[in-house]
Sequence to fold (373 residues):
Amino acid sequence: MKKLLSLFLAAAMAVSLAACGAAETEDSAPSEPAESSAAASGQEQPEDSASAPESSGPDQPGAGEEEGDSNILVAYFSWADNAILDDDVDAVASPSVIPPGNVQQLAGWVQEETGGDLFPIRVTDPYPSDWDACLSRANQERGDDARPALIENVENLDQYDAVFLGYPNWWYGVPMALLTFLEQNDLSGKQVYLFCSHGTGGLAGSVEQIAGTAPDAAISDNIFDCYEEDAASSQQDIQGWVAELGFGGTETEEDRMESRQIAVQFDGGSVVYELNDSAAAASLYAQLPLTIAVEDFSTNEKIFYPPEELDTGDAPLAQAGAGTLAYYAPWGDVVMFFDDYSPNSSLYELGQAVSGGELISEISGTVTITAAE
Fold:
């Protein structure tokens, strides 16, 4: 997932871009005007008004909010932080505008690993949440070499020695707002690490654009990039990359697994489960985050099918009643009980609801399941 750039590859990419630039094909569109997850995978929801969108990422200083004492800044541009969602926005056609977006999610994981300050790069004029309209505006800005105005800049840039800079590939480069950020926030002398979510265009000319706009920054050749459809499952990869760079935290895997909670988030709220210490629960936890469809079954349960089977070797049988999170091995489905049930020799307990248990019966449609803080 990470790429060491070389002069040879940069030259080859330049030739490739020249060949691609003449035609406007599907492959020459931005690798999803923001990422494409952001959101099915993820990005943060801007406030639903005509004013500039408000970001709500984890631990991130918002407009006018003072940054902390860290010497590490995690700055990122995300479509989901820069769009006003239409009521009829299509989550399938434009997944990366739905919070959390790909880059926003990647940035949150970098922040977790580094303890740095999160800074969302946000424009004063939000982008459309319609895919084609955003695509058109992004292309227009690229053609005009525009510099979209930003809501705010980093207040105390001098305190940061290292900057992690995240962005999506838009039109084989970076969103023009990222260039605004680089021109208004001098990164000279700072160590800069890039991470990118993209489609078939890969990194394309983005690194050259950034280097040309911030010529005095020390931009590392060790760059993290992932395909947009892989962003939601890249937590381990990107945090491993951060650790490899020397910024990893001291928390051990044993510490992380000591108290495992997961949050099932849906339109009506969130249900938090405390997982037990079985291998089956660990198997589910390792597959997070998930964006997945939940189905009704019988009169007392909601179910979903995790991508991979769970290891039931040491799992206890489920028999605790309403609020139980269980796994039915013959069908491979995870069961969320909201009423009493009959024990079954193939039904294994994964954990119990510790918050929002009264909402389990209301869960429907597509949900997001993440590790709970």
